[in-house]
Amino acid sequence: MSRALKLAAVAGAALLTRRALRGRIARSPLWPLPALETPISGHSPRRWLPALIVSRTEPADGVLMLTLESAELPPWSPGAHVDVQLPSGLVRQYSLCGDPADAGRYTIAIRLVEDGRGGSREAHAQLLQGAELPVRPPRNRFELEPSSSYLFVAGGIGITPILPMLRAATAAGADWTLLYGGRSRASMPFLAELESYGSRVTLTPQDEAGLPDLAALASAGPGTLVYCCGPAPLMEAVEAAAPPGTPVHLERFTATPATGASHPFTVELHRSGRTIEVAAEESTLAAVRRELPDTPYSCGQGFCGTCQHRVLEGRVDHRDTLLTDQEREGSMLLCVSRAKDDHLVLDL
After folding, report:
1. Strands of 105-111's sheet, edge to edge?
2. What's phi and psi for 228, nearest 5 deg?
3. Is 127:66 a contact under the CB 8 Å cutoff?
4. Mind listing the pLDDT tens digit of every residue in the chain (348 residues)?
5. H helical segments located in 143-231
6. CA torsion sign, 84 to 89 to 91 to 92?
7. Can you tell me the distance from the alpha carbon of 233 to that of 231, in angstroms, rounded to the nearest whole number?
8. What are the Cα distances from residue 340, in Å, to 83, 263, 286, 308?
9. How far apart are CA 190 and CA 172, in angstroms?
10. pLDDT value at position 117?
11. Is 10 in a helix, a strand, or coil?
12. DSSP run (H or E) holding 187
């Protein structure tokens, strides 16, 4: 066989092999497993999923409610939240407050915070019906555990993760009550839906009745699970009022306050061949960006995962509210987490 014929035969075999592999992958996207970035579930927690805003309403003063639809949206459970990517590139987190039974449909509600970091203002101004809004697959660190009895406490927009919990608890036949406070009735979303639950719900608009009465916590029966979402002072009050041994589950709007004094440490940027100093009063992210200014970040509070990077050596003082225990074994969020000791090595 001539050289030209041999080359043609090899090229033909390579083309057939490539076509066969494409067909095999098309029939089974989970093959070959070792090369996949996406886990068995088919939804990487870091993958952006396209969604369309099909409804925009205002269920209360200063509250924007969006309904998103996409065939790619995975299932979720009460207490879950999603990352959304705003038109500017900012990443923000919002609890899902719709019905998990509505496949391919998510509902989120966003409170306008005029003196915030800008995400809510952008959402209210630019997220219009018909626009696309990328979201990441849901995460849930506020999972509703099975119980025969619940006491729910919500403050303001903190009602959003609680709302689907009420539906789930009702469907399960559980005994439950809700204490729901806000600045005024006009500012409290979902009041019409909550009316259907009758005396199970106690509304406390601050301009009418002051702060929620947490005395019900003291009389909670054995086995009652407490779920609370709202401003930090409310959650602190709930923890203080709950009898010893009562499980209290909290969903925070801000990063968990750091415990203990922060100390300086060094970070070796393995791929860059540089070692940097992180002062006690600055974040790991700020120190890294002095050397690598293009290092991406968004929320700066340990929620969104944009600044997650691999840790090659060293023990991490994790201060985020996002990463799973498995993810924490080999990575960290630079914006809030630090070294437990004096040195870390990052894959940067």
Report:
1. 52-60, 63-69, 105-111
2. -135, 135
3. yes
4. 555 555 455 445 444 444 444 444 333 333 333 333 333 334 555 689 999 999 999 999 999 999 999 999 999 999 999 999 999 988 888 999 999 999 999 999 999 998 887 899 999 999 999 999 999 999 888 999 999 999 999 999 999 999 999 999 999 999 999 999 999 999 999 999 999 999 999 999 999 999 999 998 988 888 899 999 999 899 999 999 998 888 899 987 665 555 556 899 999 999 999 999 999 999 999 999 999 998 888 778 887 777 899 999 999 999 987 787 888 999 999 999 999 999 999 999
5. 159-171, 191-195, 206-209, 215-218
6. negative
7. 6
8. 28, 9, 18, 17
9. 21
10. 79
11. helix
12. none
| HEC profile of 107-122 | EEEEECCCCCCCHHHH
Q: Are 234 and 214 in contact (CB under 8 A)?
A: no
Name the β-bridge partners of 269.
274, 346
Q: How far is 129 from 312, CA to CA, in rounded Å?
A: 44
SS3 for 241? helix
- Closest by CA position to 332, among listed 292, 283, 259, 263: 283
Which residue's entry shows tokens 């991406």? Answer: 296
- CA distance linking residue 90 with residue 110, whole number of Å: 15
Report the C-alpha gap between 139 and 32 in whole angstroms.
26
For residue 135, give the nearest of 91, 176, 170 by alpha carbon.
91
Q: Residue 132: what residue type? A: E
Q: How many C-beta atoms lie closer than 10 Å to residue 142's C-beta?
A: 22
pLDDT at site 20: 45
Give the C-alpha separation, 79 to 93, whole Å: 12
Q: What are phi and psi of 90, to 5 degrees?
A: -60, 145
Q: Give the position of tokens 């995975």.
A: 74
- Structural tokens at position 214: 């947490």
CA-closest candidate to residue 66, choices 86, 48, 52: 52
